[in-house]
Amino acid sequence: MISVVATKAQSVIADQPPKREFRGVWIASVENIDWPTTSNADTEQQQKQLRYLFDQHQKTGINAVMLQVRPAADALYAKSREPWSKYLTGKQGKAPDPFYDPLEFAINESHQRGMELHAWFNPYRATMDSDFNALSPNHITNTKPEWFFIYGGKKLFNPGIPEVREYIVKVILDVVDNYDVDGIHMDDYFYPYRIAGQTINDQMAFQKYNAGITNIDNWRRNNVNLLIKMLGDSIHQHKPRIKFGMSPLGVWANKKQHKDGSDSYGGNSYFEQYADSRKWVKEGWIDYINPQLYRPLNDNLVAFNKMVDWWSYNTYGKHLYIGQAPYRIIENKLPGFKLPGQLPDQIRYLRKNLRVQGSVFFSSRSLIINPLGFTDSLRNNFYHYKALPPVMLWLDSVAPNPPQQLTSRLEDNATVISWQMPLTANDGELVYGYIVYRFEEEEKIDISDPKYILSIQFNPVTNYKDITVEKGKRYVYVVTAIDKIKNESEGSIPLDVIVL
Questions:
Q1: Which residues have CB under 8 Å from 397's CB, separation 6+?
Q2: Distance (Å, rounded) from C-alpha 181 to C-alpha 107?
Q3: Residue 208 is inside which H or E element, if any?
Q4: What is the pLDDT of residues 439-479, one digit of tens each?
Q5: Residue 135 in this model has a pLDDT that exceeds 60
Q6: Distance CA 53, CA 32 (A)
Q7: With contact defined as beta carbons under 8 Å apart, do 167 and 110 qualify?
Q8: Which 3 state secondary structure label does DSSP give 261?
């Protein structure tokens, strides 16, 4: 681990840290970036690796994981119409041995640690290289070759073909219907990043499916829009409480290209990838936008602070989580990231903007390495106290009822707090988990302050073992209930406990 001596500003816990803040991390499976660390690890090794990552991120204060489950028209989950990913077992189509379901395992492990699990999909990428002979015989590029074009040596779905969009929706609904994920997440790979001298071979599809759109660029943007709307409608129809979010390029469009664009000079999603990400939020097709702002504060081309400001005025009431880049410290390309205060100052900037609800870090490996002590800054300062993900009232605004009849008992020098499930909420939704607060004798009961949170659990277990109590001290416990969207009940009747 790399560490630095904390400055005076970093050594003090941030004033009144938010009780609700999205604190996410991407765990990338493509090319074994984060997990599994190798494609030939056995089941026991894979599970051990993932538990370790989750344990470390829990200690850091992370409360949401974006796990890449479909890197290239393949699957890191069992209930799929696509073959097993080669990044899991070394050969596409080969199941884990001994068999297990990695996504089911990841959901259980993340929820035990009070972290949401968002299933991360790459919608259009079908291969990562040109070794097409290594693909499984039942890979979609072999069964439906007419659905693809080759660009940059890779096969990509043609977004202009209606059957392609329908297929991708079905793939994602397999996860929505069969797994207790908290969210569906997609990143920045839509139409391919441009390569000099190459063209997208979709003229035939344009002629056949243009629906009266005469400009091919507008047609391509419309193709992506159609998929995003279909996904948003379908996901929420199948499971209304699942969040749907997108992580596009940081720049939607530069001001010199579009009158509504940002004061920036960088690659953009609107013109280069035909991804009108601002429209997806404006139309309410998605629940959160997570732009990748991987540049320093006051950068000459794409200034982090300017982009945060621009996005904060273009979220139309949905959630805004900022993609941040601890990997840049390791990458050693942008000098601004060699300043120990760069990423901490970015978080301070975000917290000053009430339209920003949190961060997502790329990627897991970067946080584990702790470059320039940034992970220490999260653990000891910014994320020192636990936080709930921000609530999405447009998905569910009805809070559960509070837990009832708290009791305690002494067990192995620890205090076990138990309670009864609350009465059914007005909307009939079941309790998803509980939050346990603890106050010392002279402290005012205030469940709005995160420093009193002992535990956030995403399961219906009705007890908690407090192993941090001291003999002779008096404590007051309060428990609240949360639902799937993390609406929180009022506090239970406080329970006084004297540790003998």
A1: 487
A2: 7
A3: helix 203-209
A4: 998 899 999 999 999 999 999 999 999 999 999 999 999 99
A5: yes
A6: 14
A7: no
A8: coil
The token duo for 10 is 């970093």
pLDDT of 191-203, one tens digit each?
999 999 999 999 9
Alpha helix segments (H runs only) across 325-453: 327-331, 342-351, 364-369, 374-377
Residue 476, SS3 per DSSP: strand
Q: What is the pLDDT of residues 41-64, one digit of tens each?
A: 899 999 999 999 999 999 999 999
pTM: 0.95
**Per-residue DSSP letters for 126-144?**
--SSS-GGGS-TTSHHHH-
Alpha-carbon gap, residue 408 to 459, rounded angstroms? 20
352 C-beta neighbours (distance < 10 Å), count: 8
Give the separation between CA 221 and CA 160, rounded to whole angstroms: 10
For the stretch 289-323, pLDDT in tens is: 999 999 999 999 999 999 999 999 999 999 999 99
Structure tokens at 28: 């990338």
Q: Which domains does the chain have, with CATH numbers?
A: 8-382 (3.20.20.80), 404-498 (2.60.40.10)
**Tokens representing residue 257 in the block:** 């290209």
Instruction: Give me the residue label for tokens 């010392």.
Output: 440
Contact 71, 30 (CB under 8 A): yes
Cβ atoms of 316 and 284 closer than 8 Å:
yes
